Amino acid sequence: MKFEVAAQLFNFFNHPQYVSGYINNIQFHNSNTTRNNLIPSNAIFGMPDQVYSSNPRIVQLTARFQF
């Protein structure tokens, strides 16, 4: 018999990563909201935290019992 425990940590230090979509899952976004922070006359110009997710810390724990 054997018991195993494992952990996976993504963005362990929780640094903001303002990109469209997720770091681990690249997807095309056909939306004007992601473009609005690039237009100087827009109210959210230069504020990526208002448009994109910061891709927060993810912790995944697993346990396995083998017999």
Describe the structure.
- This protein has strands spanning 2-10, 58-66.
- With 67 residues, the protein is mainly β.
- It has one domain.
- It has a two-stranded antiparallel sheet with strand order 1-2.
- The chain is rod-shaped and about 65 Å long.
- The mean pLDDT is 76.
Give the key terms.
67 residues; mainly beta; two-stranded antiparallel sheet; rod-shaped
Low-confidence stretches: none
Distance between the termini: 4 Å
- What string, H for helix and E for strand, traces the elements in order? EE
Rounded mean pLDDT is: 76
Query: What percentage of amino acids are in beta strands?
Result: 25-35%
Most strands sheet? 2 strands, antiparallel
Radius of gyration: 18 Å
Extended strand count: 2
What's the arrangement of strands in the largest beta sheet? 1-2
Number of helices: 0
Structural class: mainly beta
The helix fraction, in percent, is under 10%
What's a quick, concise take on this entry?
With 67 residues, this protein is an all-beta fold.
Helices and strands in order, then pairings?
Elements: E1 2-10, E2 58-66
